[in-house]
Amino acid sequence: MDVVMGYLDTFVFDSVYSKAALLTSTEVLPRDNIVRQSLSLFVFIYGYIVAFYYVTAGVSYRFIYDKKLELHPKFLPRQRFLEMELAARALPQITLMTVPWILGELRGYSMVYKDWNQYGYPYLLVSAVMFILFTDFFIYWVHRLEHHPMVYAKCHKMHHKWIVSTPYASHAFHPLDGYLQSIPYHMAVFVFPMHEYVYLALFAFVNVWSVMIHDGEYISNNPVINGAAHHTVHHLYFNYNYGQFTTLFDRVFNTFRQPTQEIYDRSRRNSKLVHDAQSSSIDTALPTLESKKLI
Ligand SMILES: [Zn+2]
Ligand SMILES: [Zn+2]
Prior knowledge:
Layout: H1 2-24, H2 34-63, H3 79-106, E1 112-113, H4 121-146, H5 149-156, H6 175-191, E2 194-195, H7 196-212, H8 228-237, H9 248-252, H10 266-269, H11 272-289
Parallel strand pairs: 1-2
Helix pairs in contact: 1-2, 2-3, 2-7, 3-6, 4-6
Bound molecules: zinc ion (2 copies).
GO cellular component, one term: membrane
Keywords: Membrane, Oxidoreductase, Transmembrane, Transmembrane helix
EC number: 1.14.19.20
């Protein structure tokens, strides 16, 4: 993150803080001042995540999303805009809660490193795999615990308003829900070393992935990858497929549910017959699911 902040300081923030100091007749805050770093990080992370969300979800909605899904009886009127509205409300608060993690990394408390040779080139790949498995495991458990009746209604239910999601559902959460599910990403670099560029690339990847698992384009029928079809099963039937990237922990902890074959078939999955069958199974299961002890 210090690379990014270095550029931002040079091209944006140095002049902003100089002008602010002039206007308030105070000393210019130095680059390593913790208040300046916190403010700059808030502005950068918020700008980044908002731009990333609207651009990625927008492109996905325009070019990838199967819009016939909007004919599903469980698709809400104006749902895409409701998803955007919820994300817009959540993102400032998620950013605020995220700043201390990135600040810790910026001030050198994490295990992020700069020298490509420090752990050797094979470790770059090993650390990327570790990052996926580490975050997948913890997100699995955060997500599964969020389905506990004691917290579900207060925190995670908002994300399940979207029974048939669009890519804009990817960041449409209660702020606490979005933050809790992001903690493993921040935690990883305090647990094992990662090269700064590998970490930045994976950070972008996880945001794209969140959009992809909500895009309704069920290309991957891979038994290991937790794709859009698996996450659709989660939105349709709630207490299955809590994983983010792989089906591994759902299989280990017995919450895996294989998407039905028709879900991979564009013409069959959008038939009235399939939509109606899904709707009636949700109507039957929902009242018990929302009150049932799920773990
Ligand atoms: Zn859930
Ligand atoms: Zn979701």
